[in-house]
Design goal:
Helix content: 55-70%
Mean pLDDT: 93
Number of strands: 4
Strand order of the largest sheet: 1-2
Strand content: under 5%
Largest sheet: 2 strands, antiparallel
Number of helices: 15
Low-confidence stretches: none
Number of domains: 2
Shape: globular
Distance between the termini: 15 Å
Length: 318
């Protein structure tokens, strides 16, 4: 492939103007994730947080694989032979992309945005505690000895994770006001916080994680709220759905492609962050074709900035 051909093909995939281009880009991501899972499953990990980070990487692979299945659309033939032509439901695609947003945002907040070991212990433990506390809700009505024991074990785990938070040097150095904020998050079963330069605790919502990840405002301004419209049976979701499949109108494809575009921003951001957390993974990334390296990184840089670049392959386009 000549440099001009490389430039044209890379830009075609980066721009993703057609649904077919998006399908091809999904396959590029899947090949990358599968390569990393296969090549780095035995890499050394130092903490339980790193262990879970590697599992999140595997989860991203399955999320993208299921996304691929959904955007290939559905057909239906009734028993009397009446046919529904192929359609894609972009509102359901939006639900999947919202989940990807939350996964990538959580990963970044805990593993990349934290500035010290103590910050990471606190964020990671808050995340674990939140999950375990939600699971405790399912304890009502459980009667089997095995499940009862598991619930009691989890109660002890929650206490242990809280103790680990409270025994960090960072927590002990906090003002009473900031310690109370941490305790409030434990009660709320939430983990979305960050520390400012003066070790004060700042509460975050999901949409703010886009800026925490350094994604440009114009790229994902209010995008979490947009996808949340489809995660819940909002009136907007209903009246938009009513007009999606009008005859001779391919708006549902256009909307699907828009949703995928946002998914690609998030996936590329995750790849860059994962390599930052596990630098050895760059070896697998660099083994991809030059075109695939360029496209993944181009999407990441476009969403954020050059300082988040994964490698220098994109310079081959110059």
């Amino acid at each position: 492939m000549t440099k001009q051909e490389l430039r044209i093909d890379s830009f075609r995939l980066f721009a993703g103007k057609t649904i077919e281009d998006s399908y091809e880009l999904i396959d590029i991501y899947l090949e990358y994730f599968f390569l990393v899972i296969r090549n780095h499953q035995k890499d050394k990990i130092n903490t339980t947080a790193e262990r879970d980070a590697k599992i999140v990487n595997q989860m991203m692979f399955t999320k993208i694989a299921h996304l691929k299945q959904v955007v290939q659309g559905i057909r239906f033939i009734s028993k009397d032979g009446t046919k529904l032509n192929k359609i894609i439901d972009p509102t359901f695609v939006g639900v999947l992309v919202r989940n990807i947003f939350e996964t990538v945002g959580m990963f970044h907040l805990i593993n990349i945005n934290t500035k010290s070991d103590d910050e990471k212990i606190i964020l990671y433990n808050l995340w674990v505690i939140a999950g375990l506390k939600y699971r405790q809700r399912f304890g009502e009505g459980i009667s089997s000895a095995k499940n009862t024991k598991e619930l009691k074990d989890e109660e002890q785990s929650i206490k242990r994770y809280i103790s680990q938070i409270e025994n960090t040097v960072l927590y002990k150095s906090m003002s009473e006001k900031n310690q109370k904020k941490i305790q409030d998050k434990i009660k709320q079963k939430d983990f979305k916080i960050r520390f400012d330069d003066f070790r004060n605790v700042e509460f975050l919502d999901w949409q703010q994680l886009a800026s925490i990840m350094d994604i440009k405002d114009k790229i994902m301004s209010n995008i979490y709220s947009y996808f949340s419209l489809y995660a819940h049976p909002s009136n907007v979701a209903v009246f938009q759905f009513a007009n999606l499949f009008e005859k001779d109108d391919a708006y549902f494809i256009e909307m699907t492609n828009f949703n995928l575009r946002n998914a690609f921003f998030l996936i590329s951001v995750f790849i860059a962050d994962y390599i930052k957390l596990f630098p050895n993974v760059i070896n697998s990334y660099n083994s991809l074709s030059l075109r695939d390296q360029i496209v993944i990184n181009w999407v990441n840089i476009f969403a954020r900035s050059d300082e988040h670049s994964i490698n220098d392959a994109i310079l081959e386009l110059n």
